[in-house]
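Hey team,

Filing this mostly as a record. A colleague (T.K.) asked me to run one chain through the structure pipeline before their review meeting, and I want the input and output archived in the tracker in case anyone asks later how it was produced. No errors, nothing strange. Just documentation.

Input sequence:
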Amino acid sequence: MAPIGGSKGIEDAARAYGIDRLSRPRKGDSTEAPGGAGESPSDAVSLSDQAKSLASARKAVHEAPEVRQEKVEAIRQAIADGTYQVSARELARKLIDAGVV
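Output structure:
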């Protein structure tokens, strides 16, 4: 694997990805869209319903609390009362599924 250094490495990488020429804005170049102020560029982005749904789900996960405190308290109370029971079969199945055993 050849090291990427200087502009030659960048040019080689661009060629490998099928990019003929790398263009960068130069000092003094305008960043406005052609045609002057007030016109919007012709590029547009549209998200599929699936992408919107995924974004919504991701947001919900990030906003959800990491610990379900009410469940933790219920289990803590059951352990303190001596009523908490774990199915040996269910525990074994989850250990196998998780690849622990």
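Quick notes for T.K.: DSSP finds four helices and no strands in the chain. Residues 52-101 form one domain.
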